[in-house]
Structure formats: structure tokens, C-alpha cells
Amino acid sequence: MRWLPFFLKRLIWLVPTLFALLTLVFVMARMMPVDPAILLAGEASSPEQVQHVRERLNLDEPLDSQYWNYLVAVLNGNLGESLYTLRPVAVDIMERLPATIELTIASLFVAAIVGVPLGVVCGVHGDTWLDHLLRIIVVGCAGLTHFWIGIQFQIFFAMELNWLPLSGRIDVEPPRNVTGLYIIDSIASGNLDALVSAVRHLTLPALTIGLHAAAIVQGITRNSVLSMIGSPSVRYLQAMGLSPTLLNWKYLLRSSLAATVTWFGLAAGMLLAGVVVVETIFDWPGTGNYAVGSIMYADYNAVVGFTLLAGALFVLINILVETAQVIIDPRGAT
Amino acid sequence: MDISRREFVAFACSTLVSQTGPQFAYATTPARFVYATATAYDTIDPHKLFDQSRSAIKQNLYDGLYRYVDNPPQLIPWLAEHHTVSDDGKSYTFHLRKDAFFHDGTQVTADDVVYSMERILALKQGPSSLFRDSITPGSTQAVERHKVVFNLNSPSAIFMPTVPDITVVNSQLIKEHEVNRDWGEKWLARNEAGSGSFELIRFSGATGWIAKRYEKHFAGFNKDPIDELEYRVVLEANTRVLGLINGEFHGAEHLTEDHRRRLRRAGNLHLIEQEAMRIFLIALNDAAPPLNDVHFRRALAYSFDYDGLINGLMKGSVIRNPSPLPRMMWGTAPDIKVYDYDLDNAAAELKQVKEPLRPLSIVALAGFSEAEQAAVLIQAALGKLGVESTIQILPWPILLKRLDRLETRPDIFPVWRSAFYMDPNSWLGEGFGSRYEGQRTIAYYRNPEFDKLVDRALVSSDQQERRSLYESMTRMLTEDAASIFIYDTKWFGSYSNRISGVRYSPANFGHDFRWVSMAR
């Protein structure tokens, strides 16, 4: 249980981290050269209309007063209301978060099933023609942007072959909302139409992110395998007469996965914070576009609320990954 | 039941593979029209929406007393059968039709019209700016169940053109959802209470909205009408183009000439072209020196390469218009001063400039290549006059804040101007009259003689007099080069070949789908 104090210490640090994040984003949001009162009052509004909106939303109060009110509200579990949708920010975000979580999980799944085996193959066959060939392909994939890959996938799979839909998340009645993850919800409710539609819509965006990420996973896994392949433990297992398949895909892979798992943790945090480009290309109704729109239109509460959520998720995932590392290797428990 | 990892992977793959292929059919209804829009909907409250892109909510889910159709726009009775105006021009009495019902089955009455007017004024957003000078809260009366009277503060020639913006809502339904007398503001942001040709099924701020045809609508429908209307938010223009080509979308907007060239090559689409009431001009800050000098403004107008922009960069997809009014709107004098690219005239005007020259700021709207190209051309024109300038590309929300005050206003910015309502005052009075200074002002023109004409035209009920007044205004604005007036835009509708009967009007921006037929 050496990981428990480590875990708790990290968890305690979450509080000042989020407080600092809140303060920073609160101030930065109000420094943006955009006046939400003007936008809300609408095109061709009079100065009186703009002032009316400003007063109604308390945007004319001093900044310290606005900050204090917001802080008190957040401590009471209230992230405030969006200036535009008039709904609690938490509700707006929760409406979109499951889409982003589903896309993140699917993308990481693609990255794992493609990147890890390729990394092992390259590591085991290090400095052979196979290694060089795969690395050239992988470096090429890593160099492509999401924007380009996404559009090429659309043209090929949606336009030429007409196999998969161009965009969106589902084109039938969504399954009964339990988790918000359409695939899980459709399986839980036995809704085959929804399941098929959800999988088909998820495929291209997940491949776009996943194949790009797989290139990084492959590189990390390959290097770990190369560093482990000459270790005494692997040589011992070889001497014991284990078959190469068993040795490579069970023992060598397991002992090489630490760095890869760490990367997955970091990547999950970043993806949850929003994959704006992919969401835009595929009209994926996730949090990325919500965040961009909120920033663009100075929806103060939405900006701060989203940043707090994304920050908390990122830090929490990192704590979990670091804790997992400590469990694997207790020498890191400092 | 135990499932091994191998079995699970095999099952997952087989599910995916078995469902891929052209033989798969979507479970959509035959007459479901999907319109790809780049505009996200944060609210669907008709009394807050006042922009072109989201007018689809008002056009399709709600009705007004009168309605604009066709091009040039015609005002036709809609929820009202007819109206009368009192002799003093201050009272407008509307007689409502009795066969109009909201989507919940309740009849549309004068009380609903009164409530709608009061709600617009109370929320002070969107269309309320149209009525702030003319209607006092509490002055509108339901004199009979189907007769409503609007009592104006003073005669107003622009009241009738703004009547279609009085979107009528179901007052009983909204009152049931009011919280702390908020006029149902939160509820109506995500629900509807209309009597329009379509009734809302689903709304999501992330994906758009879906509505089904309201079969009991008093106006009936044409042959093969749309059964379900979906406005899907598709932010990426390339995705909208691809979706049109492969038939996933049946209509789309916010496309450029390059996109249209691709669409024309597709066999399953047709493009509709109409002249819009949307002008493009280079707005000048007439209050800031040296732009407050008429000779400098004229020199600038003579230095701009109109042909280079219209026929070169824009490949003739727009129409040269030297007037501050769209060509389709009445009120332009036949003898307005027209500026062409002429450096000799520019040099002659520049010699008469008394104000010292200084570096000028140009701001262009981000994401609109035409605005950026015009900014570069005006910078080149300034260069020919020996004036330094800087170009800033700003997104609309930031530019809007800069426009709010004279002190922060850029010297020059290329901009499009659509109608807030179908009357010359929407461009001339609101754009250049001192009484409208603020966001709507185009130029801070500040000419007392011009202001007198604006004021007179606003109260006159004599159409001939009004025409004459607006013609005088167009002469003044062009003579003084109050801004640089460049072209009229065209409206291009991109539709699947299954679609017919689209009735474009500059007032409905092509979003009024009640007239449309869709082949099964």
C-alpha cells in the first residue's frame, strides 16, 4: 500500500491547482477583446439595449465582485449559466462530454491495437529491413495532420466506396440515454439499429485520431522493446526454451508497456480536452467545438467551467497513471 | 457465459465488416430534408434571433402577421387577413384569421399577438431594436378575440416592413413555463411555441434541430411537401460540399464560388441564383481625419480597383452597384455619382485635401476571403495616394466590439450590409443617419441636411415623396463618397435534384421551406 500516501498527496494538490486554473482563466476570459453584451443584444442593437443586457447579467459589476461571486458559486458546486444557452454550464458540457469520451476511448483503442503490435514487431526485428520499412510508414503517418487524414478518409470511405457516413454521430433515433455513450447504451438497450449506426459513424473519426496516435505508440513501444530485449530476464526466458511468440507477445510486451501506458494517460487527458479539428470535420458533437465557440463569443462561465472540467480530468488521469506506475514500480513513490 | 478475448475481437470485427458496404440503407423517412448549416444554435427563441443564418427558426416554426415572399419581396397577409391604418397614421388594426392554430391545438388570438409584442420589448434583444422608438410597452391592445391594435408613438413609414418580425408565440403555453416572470426565456430557448409550418421534434445546441410538418397549418402545402426538416450543424465547408454530392444533405449554405464550381460538376445537384439585397461596401469612418475630408474620400473612391475585385478576384459572381442601396430596392436616384478606377481624378481630389495625412487602420472580417481581398485592394489604393496603412484580420465578435464606439472604430473596413427590414431606411437611414449612431452606423456621416431627409422619410406616408427623399439621400452619399459602394451580392442556393419549388426572398434568405417539394 505504498501507493496510497502518494495518491492522497497528489489528490490534495489537485485543489490549489484547480483554484489557480480558475483564477487564471477567469481573468484571461475577461481580458478578451469581446463584449458578450453586444453579441447578446444582437445585430443592430441600440446602446441602451447593450447596457440593459450588461446590467441584467451583472457584467457591469467590478471584476473582483464578479470573481468573488463566481468563486462562491463554484464552491457550492455551481459552475454558473451559459450567457447564450441560459442553461447551467455543467448541463451543456455533460450533453457533449459523452461524445468526446466515446471518441477518445475508440481512438485510443485504435492506437493500441495498431501501434503496440507494430512497436513489438519493430523492436524484435530492430534494424532489419522490416523495421526500417515500418518506421518510414509510421513516421509518414505521424507527420500527417488530422485535417488531411480526415478529409481523405471522407473522400475514400464515404464518397468513393460509400461504406461509411460522412459525418455526424448517429442517423437513427439515439438509444435510451444511460451513459451517453451510444455504443454502450445501444448494447444495453438491445437497439441494434442504433448500435450499427453509432459504430459506423464512430469509425472514421476514431481512425483519424487513432492512426495518428498509433504512430507515436509504435515509436514508444519499439524503443521500450529494444531496451528490454537484451535484459537478463529476457535472456533467462530464452534460455528456458520459451517459444519466440510467447516470449515476445506475453513477457517482453508486458515488461515494455510502462512508457506506453504513461503516454496513453497523457493522451487521454489531451483528447478529452477537445479534438477540435476532428470534431469539426466529422461534425462530432463533442466538447471541443463547444469550448471554441465559448471562447470566441466570450461566454465567460462556459469558458471557465469547461477549463475547470478539462483541467480536473487531465490532472486526475495523470494522478491515476502516476499511481499505476508506483504500483508497478514502487521506487517512484516520492 | 465466458467469452475469450479472441472471440470478442472476432465478434467486434465481424459486426463492423458485416455492416460496411453500399448495400446498407439508412433508416430515414423518404421526405426528410437535411439542410447543412454552418451556424450553431445556442437558442431557438424567436424573439432573440435576428440574424440571417438562424432566421430558419422563425420562418419554419413560427408565423407572423404578414410574410415576405419572392424576389423582389412582396408582403402578403399571413396570420392577419388584412389591416387598416388610422387617419393620423398612428394606429394599425390587424384582423386575424380564425383558422390558425398553434402546434398544441390552441387558436391563435389577439392576446397572443399582444403578448408577443410585449415579450419582444421586454427582452430587449434581437428584433426589439426595430420597435424601440415606435411602440411603448403596454400600448398594444387586443380589442377583440381576433382584432389587435398597435398604437405607435408617432407615424412611422417603416412599421409595416417590420411587422413580419413580430413573431407570434403561444402565450398560454409560455406562461405555463415562466419562472419569476421571465417571459419563459429559459424554456423558449430550447422549446418552441409556434404555429408555423413545421413543429419541433428535437433540438440540440451541438447538432441542430429537427421538425416535422404541421399538417393542420392554415396555408396548406404544395404537392410532395417535406415531411421532416432537419437543420444540421456542419461546421466544415468541405464536409457540407461532400455531403451534398453524396446525397447525405439536400441543401447547404455558406459556400464559396470554388465550392460551387465543384457542385456544378455533380450530376445530382442544381444551383439557384438570385440577386440578393445585400450590398458590399468599404465602410469609412467619416468622423476621423483625414477621412472627414470629402476630397480624401473621393480620392480613395477613385483609387479603388472595382474591376479587379469584381471580375478578377470574384470572377463576376457579383454585380457592380455604385449605390448605397441594393439594385432590387427602390430609392436610388438615376443620376448618382459613380466612381470608377481613375488615378488622374484621384490625384486631382487629393490636391484639395487640407487635413494632414496619417497612417490608417483597415480591419477585415476573418474567415471571409472576399473581405480580406478587398482590404488588400484598398490598402493598394491608399498606397497610390501615398498613405500608409495596416490591415488587421479580426473575427466578428471582436470587430463588433471595435464598432461599438467611435473611439475604437477602425478607419476603414470592408463589410456586407443586409436588410434589417425591406425599406430604404434600413440601408440609408440606419447606415448614415445620426439618429442611429452606434453599431448600425456604417460611417458616422453626420450631415444635418441628410438627417433632415431621414427624419422626414420616416414619417411620410406619401410613397412618391419618400422615393424622392431617398433619391436625394443616395445623391448626397455618393457625391460625398460617404463610403465606397462596390457591389450587390447574389444568393446561391445549392440543392439536391429531388428538391423543387424553393421560393427565395431577400427577407427569408432561402430558409422558408414550407413551399418546397421533395421527390420521394
Q: Could you explain how this protein is built, in words?
A:
The complex is a heterodimer of chains A (334) and B (520). Chain A has 334 residues and is mainly alpha-helical. Chain A has 15 helices and no strands. The longest helix of chain A has 38 residues. The mean pLDDT of chain A is 86. In chain B, helix 8 packs parallel to helix 9 and helix 16 runs antiparallel to helix 17. In chain B, a hairpin with a 3-residue loop joins strand 10 and strand 11. Chain B contains 17 helices and 21 strands. With 520 residues, chain B is of the alpha+beta class.
Provide the descriptors you would attach to this structure in a database record:
heterodimer, A: 334 residues, mainly alpha, 15 helices, B: 520 residues, alpha+beta, nine-stranded mixed beta sheet, four-stranded antiparallel beta sheet, 21 strands, globular, disordered N terminus
Overall helicity of chain B? 25-40%
What characteristic shape of chain A results from the CA principal axes? Answer: globular
The overall average pLDDT of chain B, rounded, is 90
Stretches of chain A where pLDDT is under 50 for at least 5 consecutive residues are none
Radius of gyration of chain B: 26 Å
- Overall average residue pLDDT of chain A: 86
Percent of residues in beta strands of chain A: under 5%
Give the distance, in angstroms, between the N- and C-terminal Cα atoms of chain B. Answer: 47 Å
| Largest beta-sheet characterization of chain A | none
Number of E-type strands of chain A = 0
- What portion of residues of chain B belong to β-strands? 15-25%
Low-confidence stretches of chain B: 1-28
Radius of gyration of chain A: 24 Å
Overall shape of chain B? globular
Instruction: Give the class of chain A from helix and strand content and strand pairing.
Output: mainly alpha
Number of strands of chain B: 21
Task: Give the helix/strand class of chain B.
Answer: alpha+beta
Terminal CA distance of chain A reads 13 Å
